[in-house]
Automatic annotation (TrEMBL):
This is Acyl-CoA dehydrogenase family protein. It comes from Streptomyces heilongjiangensis. Residues 257-383 form the Acyl-CoA dehydrogenase/oxidase C-terminal domain. It holds the Pfam family Acyl-CoA_dh_1. Keywords: FAD, Flavoprotein, Oxidoreductase. One of its GO terms (molecular function) is oxidoreductase activity. It is an enzyme of class 1 (oxidoreductase). Belongs to the acyl-CoA dehydrogenase family. Its EC number is 1.-.-.-.
Length: 400
């Protein structure tokens, strides 16, 4: 195989980087997170309409560009470098692929072109802290994570005339849940007899829908609380027999690969900033970067970032070509690389690295928040080992 990027892929990376260098510097990011949406709407319009990022991995028949997960990963790697806040992860990694996988032909033709142009943003709302479980990144997703037939989670009931659905419940920590124009809500239905999880489309203007932005550890990843009070919803798909867990697992693997590339971009940026700083900061009359201990520690960070980059690229290529489930493993490695790079960045910046004005703390928060949302790394690795069959066969064989 030829692992080199094509000229088109390199052009995508270059174009995204040039735009972000002009319009998404540290001060721009700080201003963006203070807006009601949590991101720069003008920049999002440029990313969507000029560069076509939301539709990069969508088929051309639905208004997309027709590229693969790899191209989307390269674009998100550049977004990760500056921690650029945008609705791209929720819209292009979670919502749009699910509509493509499970939606009816009418739903696809109605929604995907609008998602591809960025005129409509969307997100996936999963009850509780179960996003990693729902996407099958930290465990099997066939369990009762959406409600389980008991109080809690989100419950779905048919209308009195049996033609529609109503949703009841609350979902917290939804990516862009306060601002997305379309919600894909995972809800439990069927009681105990036919207990299952289905996905429903809820428009922003639906009655009984109450949303509010929440305080987040990582401000560059805005999240919202969604309350559903007898809210009308449309079932995603033809009928209520769709294999939702399988679709979520496939989407989750590709999303993990792209988010791994995004984390690699962030880690690489932290390393760049740290290397530049240790070359300038002097101690005992010489730059601290000339000390052997500093060189060794930063060399370890560099090796970790490069290894994570290779894993992320392979996972993205695999999701688009071979269908292997290695996204979670790549994400675990990338989050660990980002966590290490961010910690060392703060350490080597000294007192400056701890200040609110410096951007180093933003990368620490991104590493921590991402692990809370989709990890932690040891659970991602545990699931990857389970999928690879490293824990043996069935239960009887393991006990034996």
């Amino acid at each position: 195989m030829d692992a080199r990027f094509t000229a088109e892929q390199q052009e995508i990376r270059r174009t995204v980087r040039e735009l972000l260098l002009k319009r998404s510097g540290p001060e721009d990011v700080r201003a963006a997170v203070r807006t009601g949406e949590g991101y720069d709407t003008a920049l999002w319009t440029a990313l969507a309409e000029q560069l076509g990022l939301p539709g990069l991995a969508l088929p051309e028949e639905y208004g997309g560009v027709g590229c693969t997960v790899t191209e989307l990963a390269l674009a998100c790697e550049e977004l990760g470098r500056g921690l650029t806040p945008s609705p791209l992860p929720a819209t292009a990694l979670l919502a749009a692929p699910l509509v493509l996988a499970l939606g009816t032909d009418r739903q696809r033709r109605l929604l995907l072109p609008r998602l591809a142009t960025g005129r409509l943003t969307a997100t996936l709302a999963v009850p509780g802290a179960a996003l990693a479980t729902a996407l099958a990144l930290t465990g099997d997703n066939h369990g009762p994570w959406s409600g389980g037939g008991r109080a809690g989670g989100v419950q779905a009931r048919r209308d009195g005339d049996g033609t529609g659905w109503r949703l009841y419940g609350e979902v917290t920590q939804v990516l862009d849940g306060h601002s997305a124009g379309l919600l894909l809500v995972a809800a439990h239905t069927g009681g105990f007899a036919r207990s299952r999880t289905l996905l429903f489309l809820v428009r922003a203007e639906a009655t009984g829908l109450v949303r509010a932005r929440q305080t987040a550890l990582d401000e560059t990843r805005p999240v919202g609380r969604v309350q559903l009070r007898d809210t009308p919803a449309e079932l995603l798909g033809e009928d209520d027999e769709a294999d939702v867990p399988a679709a979520l697992a496939e989407v989750g693997d590709a999303a993990a690969a792209v988010l791994a590339a995004e984390a690699v971009g962030a880690a690489d940026r932290v390393l760049e900033r740290t290397v530049a700083h240790v070359r300038q900061r002097e101690q005992f009359g010489r730059p601290i970067g000339s000390f052997q201990a500093v060189k060794h520690r930063l060399a370890d960070v560099y090796v970790g970032v490069q290894a994570a980059r290779s894993a992320a690229y392979y996972a993205a290529w695999s999701a688009g070509v071979r269908g292997e489930r290695v996204g979670g493993q790549a994400l675990a490695q990338a989050l660990q690389a980002l966590r290490t790079a961010a910690a060392e960045g703060v350490q080597f910046h000294g007192g400056l690295g701890f200040t609110w004005e410096h951007e180093a703390h933003l990368y620490v928060k991104r590493a921590t928040a991402e692990a809370l949302l989709l990890g932690p790394a040891h659970r991602l690795r545990g699931r990857a080992a389970e999928l690879a069959g490293m824990f043996g066969g069935d239960d009887e064989e393991v006990r034996g």
